[in-house]
Every structure is written in structure tokens, then in C-alpha cells.
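Page 37, top half.
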Amino acid sequence: MRRFYCVVGDPVAHSRSPAIHARAFARLALDAVYAPCRVTPAELPAAVAGLRALGCAGFNVTVPHKTAVAGLVDRLEGDAARIAAVNCVAPEGSALVGHNTDSPGLLRALRQHGVDTSGKAVVVGAGGSARAAAFALAERASGVTVLNRTLARAEELARDLPGAVACGLGSEPSRRALQEAALVVQCTTVGLSDDAVAFDPAQLNPGAAVVDLVYRLPGGDTELVRRTRKRGLRAVDGIDVLVHQAIASLEIWLGRKGLDDLLPSLREAALS
């Protein structure tokens, strides 16, 4: 029987996950489909219940639902329990189990590009993706600073990370944090639909690297990524991170490891 997978979010029409997974299913000779499903926050509980009733083989979760879904599944596994954010749900019998592949997907992308994670790190944003990035880097970086336009949300995330600091985005302390950062991970939706940037990469030091979880087509590059590379700094685009997250999700759903050989083909599909 054909397996059904999907991604739920709002917005979701821009997502390249359906193209990525369609290519993966073809490469793996799986009879499966993957659909984008726009779900508003008010509709989320009913949507999760519906996917359970339909026997969905697995689904991804994107903005703004990653923390809310953590409270709607039956169990949280691994990083999802620690981070309290879910972007991948897998059925186990009658139960829905929440996983987090944002964190391993980010780390895989950083390793692929040879980015050192041991220096000072800055996470821009305070939502589900930011939580995953901050928790992943807190175990590796010499320090983590969380920047967010709403300071209270940055402080809430920082309290969950030993030694982390919170600053209001655009404040003088945030400018100093960016100047001292070895790695900056941009986790907001800024730049998704226009050429806005969450911060000016001109503030960064010459050895810094930037990851932007947002992507724009064609090419995948946001204005932040373009400006960062123009300065001669290393930048990892959102397509690379998304593909690594997709591979991690597939490994969970299929119970298979070692699918990294799909990476070039899945990136090509995402950009097509």
C-alpha cells in the first residue's frame, strides 16, 4: 500500500520538502507520496488527530508549530524531549512519537562545510528552530547568545541553556555579541519572502561563519547569505540544512541509517 507523508506548517506553499522527499522515494524505490499541508495554529490539534486517524506514515512540522506539536504527540524521543520542539513525527503502533531532526540536520550541514562549532555562537530567533540550534551548539560552543526582537522570548530560551545569554536584537549588547561570534545561526523567517536581513553581516569578524535556515529560490540564497559571501565569509544556506534534516527524518521513518549518499541528488531536487 502506498505510504503517505506530509509537512504541516503555515506558511508551507514555499516548502521544498515535497520535492526533496519525492526524489528520495524515487531513489529508494518506495511507493510513497509527500504533500504540503497548510495548517493554522487553531487547526493544529485536529490536523494531528486526522493524520493519526489516516495512518500517516510520518510527517514533518515547520513554523510555527514545532513547540505546539510537542504537546500533541504521545511521546518525545531523544533531542525532542530535551529541546521541547518537534519537527518530525513517526508512528509506533498506535502512538505518535515526536523527534527533532533540526538539531542533527544543522550539525551535519556544519560538518559538511567544515565549520568549527567550538567558538562563540549566536542564535538569532527564539522559536522551535532556534531552540534546536541553541541546544545543539550549547554542548559544543564556548558560549551561546540568543538574540530576539522580543527580549522576553530570548530570555526564556537562554534560561534553559546553562551559561547562555539573551539580548534584544538590535541592542548594543547584541551588536557586541555579533562582533565576537565565530558562528551565527539565523533562525527567524526574515528574508523568506523579500531581501530583508535579520542583522547586518558587516558587523561580523573576518573569521565568522553564518547559517541561514531560510532559503529563497532560485539558488537557495537569501540576501543574508549573499551579503555574507560578498564579505568573504563562509555561509551555509537553508537548502543544505533542509536536505540534511530530510535525510535524518527518512532514517527515522524507514529505520535505516547511512542515507547521506542521497545528499547531492536531494539538493538538486530542492533547487529544481
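Page 37, bottom half:
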Amino acid sequence: MSRRPLLIAGMFLFSVCAAPAQTPSPDAMTAARSLVTTMKLSDQYKALLPAILLTLRPTLTQDRPEIERDYDAMMPAVANVFAPYYATILDNIATVYANNFTAGELREIEAFYRQPAGQKLLEKSPALAQQTNQVGQDASRKATDDLRARLTEALRQKGHKL
């Protein structure tokens, strides 16, 4: 399984539990909520539920077919239980944005996302995040291997047996 659903689930849990550091102005909150809607963050967080349920399934069902059937049958009701969290998540995200940008800045950001380039960025963001993450992992792996070799050689030159 990809790490991405687990990362998103972790971000979800953090966003629900995180308390805002300050109370933003009502104008900034209105602008932030509008931006969150324009960015279609609700859709992204609704997509989390299947990943969360897939992660929980093996632990709860213990590979027992009778439990798996009941688990699968409960899925429609679970979606309804998860629904209230969406509003909390989106409100907390809006608060984060409102705490970091002025109402005017939020409107400017939203104006960008409403343009074709902004819409394209929103559409491509998941793939871009995955690709850039892979680039970072590959570079880190290569750097780690190189550093390990160089440090090992340097320590050997100092007489250490590794």
C-alpha cells in the first residue's frame, strides 16, 4: 500500500486535533472558507475515508470472513458517521489559512485558483506531490549512500575497522 493514504490520514487526524493558535477575523475566515471551497479540499478529504477504512479493515476483521462481511455491510453507515468530521476539517483548514494570510491575500489566492492555470494546478497537485516526493526520496537515498561510503572510508583511514 502506498504511504500517501497513511500520510493523508495522519494529516487529517492532526488537522482535527490541532487547536488554532489565534482567532482570525470574521472577514479572513469568510475569505478562507471561500478559498477552501475553490480549492475543492472537501473532495480531497472525502477521498480519505476509503483509505482509512482500508487501513482499518485488516486490524478489525482479523482476516475472518464472517467479520469481513459485516464490516463491508457497515460501510454506508460509516460514511454517515464520518460526515461531521468534514466540516471540522474544512473549518480548521480555513482557520490555518486565515491565521497565515490577510483577507485580501486570501481573495488574491482564490482569484488565482479560479483561473485556468490555478484550476490546472489543483488538478495536477496530487500527481505533482507524488512525483516531487519521489524525486526527494531518490536524491536522499543517493546522498545517504554517498555519505555513508565517504564517512566509512574516512573512518577507515583513521584506523577504525568497520
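Margin note: The mean pLDDT is 87.
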